[in-house]
Design the sequence.
């Protein structure tokens, strides 16, 4: 019931304000006709000058450029992170391999010098025996 | 006690019926108003689309610039939407004036019901004698039929002009309503977008200059 009364009162208000509403609409319609004619003339001139009559405004172009850059940055970020991670891990692996290899080499060198020493001792022993 | 108006039982019934009709009329108008407001809200949502990117990317940084940008965008959107109804109305007007020019009849009546007008397609009644009030009370007589629907060759311009102008005019009025809705929304958004609000601001726990 309350809703019905509300709608009824709104209807009453609209009926009372109807002349004003029609006046505002008529004024805006006249204004819009002027805008329409202006836009039509402007579009024809822009078209014959080789431009796009209803293309984007400079602000829109700038906004689109920024959004595109953001999108590209967003798309590039994961790849770059992955590439960096891969590069870092390869460096790590290479470093590990290098340190392991040098350690191995050192061990081998040590072993071979020990062998040489032992051989010399043996030779000397052999000499002594002579 | 002096009685100025004596109402019969029939008069009372008639007044009650008229009152109910008035209430029904206001309720219908109220619902139409609600519908128009909903449509205007829908039309205004286009303004959000127009302004979102330039504000979000920081291309526009002031209220005034946003307002001017919104107005220019609104003109473009209106032009894009309104050129079809405008063309329909322009074509109808051109046909009407060309007909007047070739027939040299500048008093061509598009609402005539006998020969040249759109009303030849409808039943036309004479409503002048519908309602009479006298000392005895109200009298209502059914209006006399003046014209029955018939096709007239001379009325072909009216058959094009009236529907085209009605459709084009209603469509154009709808677009004007959309223009108004968007313009109002742009005004509201330009006021709101760069306004600082204290709604979610809490003072720091350790102030720089404690008193």
Sequence:
């Amino acid at each position: 019931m309350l809703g019905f009364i509300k709608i009824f009162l709104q209807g009453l208000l609209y009926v009372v304000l109807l002349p004003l509403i029609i006046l505002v609409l008529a004024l805006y319609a006249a204004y819009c006709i002027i805008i329409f004619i202006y836009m039509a003339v402007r579009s024809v001139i822009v078209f014959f000058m080789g431009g796009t009559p209803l293309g984007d405004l400079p602000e829109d172009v700038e906004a689109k450029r920024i959004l595109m850059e953001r999108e590209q940055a967003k798309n590039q970020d994961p790849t770059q992170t992955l590439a960096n991670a891969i590069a870092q891990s390869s460096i790590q692996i290479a470093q590990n391999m290098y340190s392991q290899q040098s350690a191995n080499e050192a061990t081998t060198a040590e072993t071979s010098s020990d062998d040489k020493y032992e051989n010399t001792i043996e030779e000397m022993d052999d000499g002594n025996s002579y | 006690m002096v009685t100025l108006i004596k109402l019969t039982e029939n008069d009372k019934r008639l007044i009650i019926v008229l009152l109910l009709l008035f209430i029904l009329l206001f309720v219908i108008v109220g619902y139409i108003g609600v519908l128009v407001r909903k449509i205007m809200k829908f039309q205004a949502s286009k303004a959000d689309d127009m302004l979102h990117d330039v504000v979000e990317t920081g291309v526009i940084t002031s209220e005034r610039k946003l307002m001017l940008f919104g107005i220019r965008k609104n003109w473009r959107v209106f032009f894009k939407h309104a050129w079809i109804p405008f063309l329909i109305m322009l074509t109808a007007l051109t046909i009407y004036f060309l007909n007047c020019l070739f027939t040299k009849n500048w008093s061509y009546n598009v609402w005539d019901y006998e020969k040249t007008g759109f009303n030849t397609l409808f039943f036309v009644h004479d409503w002048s004698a519908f309602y009479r009030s006298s000392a005895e009370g109200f009298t209502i007589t059914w209006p006399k039929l003046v014209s029955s629907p018939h096709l007239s060759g001379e009325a072909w311009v009216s058959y094009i002009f009236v529907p085209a102008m009605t459709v084009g005019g209603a469509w154009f009025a709808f677009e004007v309503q959309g223009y108004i809705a968007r313009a109002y929304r742009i005004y509201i958004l330009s006021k709101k977008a760069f306004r600082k609000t204290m709604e979610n601001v809490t003072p720091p726990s350790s102030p720089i200059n404690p008193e």
